[in-house]
Amino acid sequence: MRRVKVLLSVLVVGLFVGSYAFATGQPEGTAAKTGNIRIALVVKNLGNSFFDAVHDGGVEAAKELGNVDVIYQGPSTPTAEGQISIIDSLIAQKVDAIAISANDPNALVPIAKKAMAAGIKVISFDSGVAADGRELHLAASGDELIGRSEVQAIGQMINYTGEIAILSASSQATNQNAWIEWMKKELQDPKYANMKLDAVVYGDDLNDKSYNEAMGLFKSYPNLKGIISPTTVGIAATAKALEDAGLAGKIQLTGLGLPSQMKQYITDGTCKEMELWNPIDLGYSAVMIAYDLVKGNITTVNPGDSFKAGRMGDIKVGDGDVAVMSTPFVFDASNIDKFASIY
Ligand code: RAM
To answer: Do the domain assignments include residue 70?
Structure first.
């Protein structure tokens, strides 16, 4: 009986597909081209609330534009290999545009080139693909500003004296690595002469690994005074580790955090101050820019060009075809409640 049912449903689906192809008069495979514009957001990994908020922003843009579908994909762990196989299948599906937050700037170039050769518009956002593998990179904020301001914040918190460490995302992440380079440059200023960077460790944007790396830092560096974690996953895991180890307040913490995840730690003083930009705006802007490229509103991207990004206004392209969305916002006990309910 069950077999009959299965056979019947196969037949019904077959009839439906057949009539659909007939009704549109399109050969199979190109039918989707007459439908909505399909823009894929390929994120570092799924299960990261930062990217869920990016997705929300992308969907908001799609609704506003009216004829856009957003496809949200990412590997389960933040690896370039996982992203490569996702992009390969998006090429086979003939999507119109792919916006990537890269787990590795160079490893994704060949597959991104393959997508562009197939007529797909490719941009990176948040964490860049190297220039050869995308038409434009949308940075949330300037790398120098982020890197330097993180060191300035921890410097103030520890009175410019003592050992610090950095707990990052994955070791090949374009964005965190660029910020860390600027942190190291900022640390060369004589005002940090009494501070020492002990280590940079990688929690891979996974909760458990980040938590364990934080615990490892406490053990390896008993004189540690401060931690910078420039990743929303890392900073939340470090805050929890500090509290579990009874080190909250003894080791200062700053970095880039999601207000919704960090509210309790900002309120109880484990992390006095952190920064971030609006991830909803980032996803919204990425989809708006991808749409402009698909529509041919801008055909070749050059410094000085501007994209019309809906409620975000004009987003201007700068050197290296990098567009910067905004400046980071500082969160502390005075404003965390307001933002924690948004993202
Ligand atoms: C994590 C990711 C993301 C980064 C934020 C700050 O969610 O690593 O790429 O921009 O942190």
So the answer is: yes
